[in-house]
Amino acid sequence: MISVADAAEDPDLRQILPKINGLLPYSGLMVLPPERLARIDPELAPTARIPIVATLRSQSTTQTVEERGLLSRSLLPVPDLEGKVAWYLDGGILFNRDTWIVDHIRDLVYDKGTLPERSIGTVTIFLDDVRISTNVPLKFPAHEGEAPERALGSLVSDEVKEKVLVNGEQWINRAFVFNDWFISAYAPLEDVRGQRVGMIYTGFSESPFIHNYLLNIIELGTILMLVLLVSGLLVYRGAYSLLLPIERIHQVVQAVQSGRNIRIGALDLDRDNELSNLAEQFDSMLDLLQSRNAQIQAAAEQLEVKVAERTRSLHDKTLELQSNVALLNETRQQLVTNEKLTALGELTAGIAHEINNPTAVILGNMELLRYELGDNADVVKEEIDLVIQQVGRITTIIRSLLQYSRPGEFNAPLEMHNMTSIIEEMLVLVRHSIQKQAVVLITELNATCPVQVNKPQLLQVLINLVVNAAHAMDGKGRIWIRTYDWLQQGVPIGVKIEVEDEGVGISPEQLGRIFDPFYTTRKDGTGLGLSLSYGIIKRIGGTIEVSSTLGKGSLFTMGLYREAKEERQNSPYEGLYFAGNYNEMSGE
């Protein structure tokens, strides 16, 4: 009992007094710190103290002990004889560690037989998010005969705390409770001031329900499989007589597709059976198809024979036409060449008569000059010898013209020579022709095999090629002269001579005509230099290969056999080879 005055002075009871209506009692929740619990009863503060237990799926906290107490406090007005309130009957329950109330609520909610085997019903009272009274076990399931230890001091999960404690809403759903999933219901608790101070929870474990659910599915599935198996056996036995003919038809279809010639035949069924009729029609179709295929094959073989005959005839006609075209082109080229040679023969007859007399005079005067000068001739000995030498070259050129126009009337003597000495002599002869030009001659003389040639004629060819190369570079650039042994299967059969320049090159249109007599692209050229060179090389059985690239230069390659092959009867252009990407180069 407490007097009205004492109740008015108590700060905790002052929160309840305004809510009392007349003589009606009032009960409400309040949260008290340890010192105020001790003022009510010294034993309450130690009882309310609960250590905080770290919990899965909850917020981490630095708090280690919950020392506050959650009480249900009640005031009952007691009137005096006059009917006025003189006293209050003050009573309450501390929920911290109170297991009786949560067990009692559990027994009311989860009556015996309402939950499946191994499922437990649980009730919890929370102060804020801390379990202060609960029958949620620390270990589930507990050992048989062992009293389960309660999860006091554990925390509620984050999602439940956010919805129930922070937002003030109810939670009816599955939730993670301490260490397992439970089908749960949470509701917020408010104190006498209307502030949310905790929660009340009830729920039952989910795993036994899932276990029973899966067990039921397995049982139903097993029953269904047995039913299907029995039904399948019955259907198979009923359809066995139908499946065998279909399988026979299927095997025959596969065999026919792979190329075998078989038929379905009798199926041991009634003649009126649809499958028997189908088999007979299929066999008739296969017989008809085989007959048609035989006819098609015979027609195809006849067609192949006719096509082969026509193809062979056409091929023979084509070869004959190609041969005639080649003969026509060769004849036309020979006619053109003969006409040019006829003109050249007439020209050389006059040149020989008109030039031989002046050259004889020049030669005689040079000899007379050397005689008259006597010892003083040594000063200009080199120039006199050079003039005499060049007069001899003029005579040789005239003879070459005669040889080119009438090769049967002139046979130049052939002798074995070393190619290096001929190249060195050619360099001396061309020195005066290119000494005023910025031309660099680079030699790579590696040939060791001697060859059978006419030295003056070969000198004439080499000089012509070098002078042409210098003209193609406008008198400025490099000219390479290379010699090396011509090998076949490792055995030397002659010599290869290369003359390469870095001039403007020869275009593809001009490349096919550079060896024609009188063809030239130079204003002061005669068009006889390359033509004469080609004739000289051809008559001793040699080869000339030409490759050119516009803007980069040209390469002339001569092949001379160890022994000249004068007896070979070549066509006018046999032994002449051209290579692709060609640039401009004029004939002398």
UniProtKB/TrEMBL annotation:
<feature type="domain" description="HAMP">
    <location>
        <begin position="240"/>
        <end position="294"/>
    </location>
</feature>
<keyword id="KW-0597">Phosphoprotein</keyword>
<dbReference type="InterPro" id="IPR003661">
    <property type="entry name" value="HisK_dim/P_dom"/>
</dbReference>
<dbReference type="InterPro" id="IPR036890">
    <property type="entry name" value="HATPase_C_sf"/>
</dbReference>
<dbReference type="Pfam" id="PF00672">
    <property type="entry name" value="HAMP"/>
</dbReference>
<keyword id="KW-0472">Membrane</keyword>
<keyword id="KW-0812">Transmembrane</keyword>
<dbReference type="InterPro" id="IPR029151">
    <property type="entry name" value="Sensor-like_sf"/>
</dbReference>
<dbReference type="InterPro" id="IPR004358">
    <property type="entry name" value="Sig_transdc_His_kin-like_C"/>
</dbReference>
<keyword id="KW-0808">Transferase</keyword>
<keyword id="KW-1003">Cell membrane</keyword>
<feature type="domain" description="Histidine kinase">
    <location>
        <begin position="350"/>
        <end position="564"/>
    </location>
</feature>
<dbReference type="InterPro" id="IPR036097">
    <property type="entry name" value="HisK_dim/P_sf"/>
</dbReference>
<dbReference type="InterPro" id="IPR003594">
    <property type="entry name" value="HATPase_dom"/>
</dbReference>
<dbReference type="InterPro" id="IPR033463">
    <property type="entry name" value="sCache_3"/>
</dbReference>
<dbReference type="InterPro" id="IPR003660">
    <property type="entry name" value="HAMP_dom"/>
</dbReference>
<keyword id="KW-1133">Transmembrane helix</keyword>
<dbReference type="Pfam" id="PF17202">
    <property type="entry name" value="sCache_3_3"/>
</dbReference>
<dbReference type="Pfam" id="PF00512">
    <property type="entry name" value="HisKA"/>
</dbReference>
<dbReference type="InterPro" id="IPR005467">
    <property type="entry name" value="His_kinase_dom"/>
</dbReference>
<protein>
    <recommendedName>
        <fullName>histidine kinase</fullName>
        <ecNumber>2.7.13.3</ecNumber>
    </recommendedName>
</protein>
<keyword id="KW-0418">Kinase</keyword>
<dbReference type="Pfam" id="PF02518">
    <property type="entry name" value="HATPase_c"/>
</dbReference>
<dbReference type="GO" id="GO:0016301">
    <property type="term" value="F:kinase activity"/>
</dbReference>
<feature type="transmembrane region" description="Helical">
    <location>
        <begin position="213"/>
        <end position="236"/>
    </location>
</feature>
